[in-house]
Amino acid sequence: MKKLLALTALCSVVVLLLLTPSCNNSSSNKPVASGKEDSLKKILDRGEYLANHVAACLDCHSTRDITKFAGPVVVGTEGQGGFEFGPGVGVPGKVYAKNITPDTETGIGTWTDDEILRAMTHGINKAGDTLFPIMPYARYNQMAKSDLLAIVAYIRTLKPIKNKIPARQLMIPIAMAYPAPALQASVDANVLPAETNKVAYGAYLGNMAHCTDCHTPLTPQGAPDMTKLFAGGHLFDLGTFKVVASNITSDTATGIGAWTEERFLNKFLPLREEKNYNFNPGKENTVMPLPAMAGMTDSDLKAIYAWVKTIPAVTNKIEKYPK
Fold this sequence. Notes:
By secondary structure, the protein is mainly α. The protein folds into two domains: about 1-190, no CATH class; about 195-323. Helices cover about 30% and strands about 5% of the residues. The chain has a three-stranded antiparallel beta sheet with strand order 1-2-3, with no helix packed on it. It has a two-stranded antiparallel sheet with strand order 4-5.
C-alpha cells in the first residue's frame, strides 16, 4: 500500500521515465502495467540506496546510538527526527533534525513533492520558514532531479512515527546562516554524470554525501574555510568524545594522498558487518556514518576514491582525538 501511495505521488515522474512507447515493441510480451511497476521499483530502490547510504538522510533524521562505533541508526527510529545539533558541532545554538516520516501531525505526511523538494534543495519548509544549513540543502541543490525525486518516493514509504520536534534555539538570525549565493533557482537542469566517468560521478556522490561540510575547517565566524577545502580540522564534541575530521586532500604527508584504492575501501567495507561497529569505542569514536556509507556499492566507493585523489593537496596535520 505504501508503495502504491508513492506511485501516486510520483506519477508525473513515472510518466517522464516511461515516454518510450512499450506498446510499439512487438518483441515484448510483458504487460505495460508490469513495466510501470518495474520502473517504480527502480525509483524506490534508487531512493532507498541514496537516502540510506550516500546522502545519509536517515543518519541525521533518526536516533543514532553514539555509544556504538560511528553511531549506527537505532532500528525502528528511521526518519523520526529529534537528533540535537548544538555548539559541539558548530551550531550557534540548538537545532533538531526534523521528523521526515509520513506522520500527518508531526512529520511530512501532508507535504507535496514540491514542498519536500523545496526543503531539500532550498531549505524552505512547508510553512515558508528557513532551515538551518546543517541540513545540507546547498549540496542537494546540485543533485539531479531524478535522484531527488527518488529520495522523496522512498521517504514516503517510511513507517509514520508520531514524534514532535522541539523548536530551534539560535543565537543569530537565520538570515545570517542562509547560503543564498550557493543555491540555484532550479534543479531541473542538473545532470547525473555517467558512471563510466569515475571522477565526475565520484564528485557527484561526494557532493551528495556532503563531504565538504565535515572535512573543511570553519573560520572563526563559523563559515567553511575555503582556503583549506577538505583539509580537515573541524572539531566535533559530542560530550562523550571529541573527534576532528580528517584531512582528505591528496597531500601525502598529512592527507590521504598515499592511500591506495584498497586502503580507501577498507575504511568502509568492514562496517558492512554489525560485529565491526557493535561495540563501545569509548573516546575514540567518530561521527562519520561509516556503517551507512559502507552500504555503498564497491563501484561507487571506487568512484569516490578516484575523485578524492584529484583534490588539491593541503598540508594540515590533524590530531584526530584531542584531549
